[in-house]
């Protein structure tokens, strides 16, 4: 693991010394938007119109943030319009690599480059910062549109309907404030909360993160007692953002990140809800437990110095989800 400083690679682990042992996620560099007609989006510059075959996603199957973009690509019928390259699950001193010696790792499908950082320096030779997945690459302008998953999923949700005819909407206008409110708590205490617990280097930083995480899981468990999905009777973006953390919970976060007050399977509502989302057509194909389990345990040498990859729990994600008694309606 490392980062770029003025286009040069430096192998450094996360700095938690300056923050009293707390892991703080840095902000994202590329913030442009693909829009229907190329007009600028909420941030960055314009000139990125939705076109078939023009954009390419760089992802890791292990990463929960990249996973969101793969789910939206599948749900929105974008497989034939947006290509994908999958990095190797081991993220070591060179950062994400395009090695292909692991099932499902594709290499760099556009340029045949060895490292993900080469894609970042192709976009900006003097770039500084972390080299993260996902990356949405524009093959026409030869640059990165965005490396912020929260924004990439909104582009995939909203910009390509004219091309695909798929107008399913996971961020409906009338629900946006409510969705954003749920996202905010879920992001800080669950999505990023597991990382704050796992990467903490002081007891107090770990305690703070792990308590907030399980408070939120209790809150979500209650919320899902009479709601089929987080926002009620229709699936929204908020559900997919939560799903990619829940699906990794028992396999990785419970043990490797010490989020072990309870397992996900011990929450009846959350566990049924996770199975239902997993069973939505197109979603199971985006879940790769081999990459997930291998990545975390092998890459984080500071947490797991012998790099033993555990066997992992047997999870029956295809079991009936048992949530049919709660009302549901279409996303269109
Ligand atoms: N804000 C980014 C965060 C993405 C992120 O942190 N990805 C992780 C993998 S799960 C990564 O690539 N980390 C490499 C690093 O931090 O050096 C997003 O949501 O798109």
TrEMBL record:
Q: Determine if Transferase is one of this entry's keywords.
A: yes
- GST C-terminal domain boundaries: 172-311
Protein name according to UniProt: Glutathione S-transferase, omega
UniProt binding sites for glutathione: 96, 130-133, 148-149
Site features described as Lowers pKa of active site Cys, chain residue numbers: 253, 296
Keywords in alphabetical order, please.
Transferase
Which source organism does the UniProt entry give? Limimaricola cinnabarinus LL-001
- Cellular component annotations (GO), alphabetically ordered: cytoplasm
CDD domains associated with the record: GST_C_Omega_like (cd03190)
- Active-site residues are 63, 195
Q: Which SUPFAM superfamilies does UniProt cross-reference here?
A: GST C-terminal domain-like (SSF47616), Thioredoxin-like (SSF52833)
One function term, GO molecular function aspect: glutathione transferase activity
């Amino acid at each position: 693991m490392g980062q770029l400083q003025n286009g040069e690679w430096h192998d450094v682990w996360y700095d938690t010394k300056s923050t009293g042992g707390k892991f703080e996620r840095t902000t994202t560099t590329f913030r442009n938007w693909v829009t229907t007609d190329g007009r600028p989006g909420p941030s960055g510059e314009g000139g990125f119109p939705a076109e078939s075959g023009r954009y390419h996603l760089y992802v890791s199957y292990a990463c929960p943030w990249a996973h969101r973009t793969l789910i939206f690509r599948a749900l929105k019928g974008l497989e034939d319009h947006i290509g994908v390259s999958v990095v190797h699950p081991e993220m070591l001193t060179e950062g994400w690599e395009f090695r292909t010696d692991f099932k499902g790792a594709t290499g760099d499908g556009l340029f045949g480059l060895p490292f993900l950082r080469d894609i970042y320096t192709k976009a900006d030779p003097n770039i500084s910062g972390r080299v993260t997945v996902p990356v949405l690459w524009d093959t026409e302008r030869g640059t990165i549109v965005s490396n912020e998953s929260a924004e990439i999923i909104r582009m995939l949700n909203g910009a390509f309907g004219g091309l695909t005819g798929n107008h399913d909407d996971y961020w409906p206008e009338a629900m946006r404030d409510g969705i954003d409110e749920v996202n905010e708590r879920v992001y800080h205490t669950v999505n990023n909360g597991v990382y704050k617990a796992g990467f903490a280097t002081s007891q107090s930083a770990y305690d703070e993160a792990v308590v907030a995480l399980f408070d939120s899981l209790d809150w979500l468990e209650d919320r899902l007692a009479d709601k089929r999905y987080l926002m009620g009777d229709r699936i929204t973006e908020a559900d997919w953002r939560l799903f990619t953390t829940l699906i990794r919970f028992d396999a990785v976060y419970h043990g490797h990140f010490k989020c072990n007050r309870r397992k996900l399977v011990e929450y009846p509502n959350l566990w049924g809800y996770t199975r239902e989302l997993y069973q939505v057509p197109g979603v199971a194909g985006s879940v790769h437990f081999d990459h997930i389990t291998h990545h975390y345990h092998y890459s984080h040498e500071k947490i797991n110095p012998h790099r033993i990859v555990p066997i992992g729990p047997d999870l029956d994600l295809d079991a009936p989800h048992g949530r049919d008694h709660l009302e549901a309606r279409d996303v269109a």
